[in-house]
Structure prediction request, 709 residues.
Amino acid sequence: MATVALKGITKNFGPAPVLNGIDLDIAEGEFLTLVGASGCGKSTLIRIIAGLEPQSAGSVMVNGAPIDHLRPHERRVAMVFQSYALYPHMTVAGNIGLPLTMQHLSLWERLPLIKLLSPRRRRVMAEIGAEVRAVASQLQIEALLGRRPAALSGGQRQRVALGRAMVRHPDVFLMDEPLSNLDAKLRVHMRTELAELHARLKTTFIYVTHDQVEAMTMSDRVAMMDAGHILQLGKPAELYARPANVRVAQFIGSPAINLLPARIGEDGAPEVLGCRLPMATGLPAGSSATVGIRPEAIAPADAGKPEAGQVSLPAVLRRAENLGAEFILHFDVAGLGDQPVLCRVPADHEHGTHGRTDLVFDAAQAHVFDAEGNRVEPSGLAQRASGKPVRLYLTGGTER
Amino acid sequence: MSTLSLARAPAGRRAFGGRQALIEKLTGIGFATPAIILLLLIDLVPLGVLGVLSFTDYELGGTDAKYVGLANFSKAMADPVFRRSMWNTLLYVAIVLPGSVGLGLLVAILVHGRKRTRSFYEMVYFLPVTATLIAMATVWQFLLHPKLGPVNAFLRLIGAGEYAFLSEPSLALPTLAVIGMWQLIGFNMVLFLAGLSSIPKDLYEAAEIDGCANGIDRFLTITWPLLGPMTMFVIVTTSITAFKIFDTVAVMTRGGPMGSSEVLLYAIYLEGFQYFHTAYAAALTVIFLAFILAFAVIQAFVLDRRVHY
Prediction:
């Protein structure tokens, strides 16, 4: 149990900075996920915390004390690698027990043959064996203790790697994409198991992944990284509901958010494809912006209710993906080129074959980002005044 | 396919299937024949002749030979020259084997740690392997010359005195062993480097987190066990190579001084091609082959177990 604090962690590989002054405070027992596309620096950051890589500047503190001068094994951190990094020549018991063997036996007590001279070795090894069995029973791999890693399945290897981390009772668990080598079904299962393990151990977890689903489902807080910066740090729901940056909005959520090009009108309201959103953004008139709409926040207007007098921006149904419980509808919208607008609708939705339709969304659920991609909090939403949502027809370009 | 051929008339099917099978058989034989002929001509027939000769009293150039049973072998057992050369060969192997395997591993680990200069060092250590040993032996002869050689010049400079490396009976065989090691280290290094490169970097990092704080721990926990199969392979190949020592002896010492560097192959060469005791040389060769076969069996056994993780 420990707090972890990162103070201005910077890392340069050659002239190119990989991490740009990362500041991060992780609470005791927290499950924090570093998420981002590959190359965003998340793995480098976790390796710096582990001590496998020296930082160029900044400091890593555990429980308020800097650990920068400590070697990896002195840091009381345990790491689970993407490849699991199990020792192929050792049995499962040997793998899990190695951290304890290194800790409790001196070098000469581990040397071949000479180790037999140690009077206390047998007793220590018995204690280690008991500890290993205890950990193995927690992970339900007791039956595998005599096997070598080559004789294990991916999920079993994953558990052994976890066991090797748990046996040391570390202050901090570091996990570098631990699930990415598993097949999809097992990954879903291990997600639950990891979350339960965290709930049971109550140790600080720092988890690296490029999979936003893992980040959303397991974490207390998520730090979304991009190009060596933390774009947003917050609870998973916050990142989803109020993305601070267009890249966060793009990364979190599946299917991905619809991003529509917009221009700020004279009154500061964004105009999307010729359609004005009733809100004030405070952005200078004439500047460009981006409006993001989650696929579940936008839907085809009910058929049979064409609005008279609308300027028609035709949306044409290109494809309907059946996911069982729901459909993902792909629409072509004029002015967006090849980029489709995605709608998530319930499975009983009648999208039928009506090729042309109007797409409608609630302006209050639109995310507005300025030209730099930063979130803009709109004000003066008409919805608040009237008390009912203003619906907006993308196809029509006028309010209803 | 099967239903189709079942429907055919039996005679037609046999003709069709028979021709197809015949063509395949002939093709197979055609491909294998050159290799079989070569194997017969170069290995198997001479080996058979060798075996037959070893039970006779044939001498090179003779027109007839008499069956003498195991006389050649019992003569060998009593022959002081053969016994000495056998002992010298084993001694040579006993020096070269640990030396070239241990140093090869050490050099490989050091070279593996280099980044920019790695290929340079690889080349430097591998050069002796590519050189012709006969030519290199002449170079070594000059280097070690008591009066003209730079080695002795250096020893004189540091006041260590002067050594007749190749003509002093107690030094001749160890000197040859050092030259043998010099030649083998590069080859063993390359094998060990291949083994080292195949060890995932993750394992070292995991070991570092798990408490392997220094090089000795890392070596004992990761490097040595994971190099185990490669090490066994290197030991067996090195043993066989060392056992076959001939060139340096033939060029540099000719078995001397006073038989102190007589080795098996050189003794066989002398008996067979200098004294023309062909049958006796054949018997010695059979004994030599028995040793090589023992090494080869160990190798096959070890290689079989190589995939134990």
About this structure: The interface with chain B takes residues 50-52, 71-73, 77-79, 81, 83, 85-90, 98-99, 102-103, 107, 110-111, 148-150, 164, 168 of chain A (CB under 8 Å). The radius of gyration of chain A is 27 Å. Chain A has two domains: 4-241, 259-393. Residues 4-241 of chain A form a domain with the Rossmann fold fold (CATH 3.40.50.300).
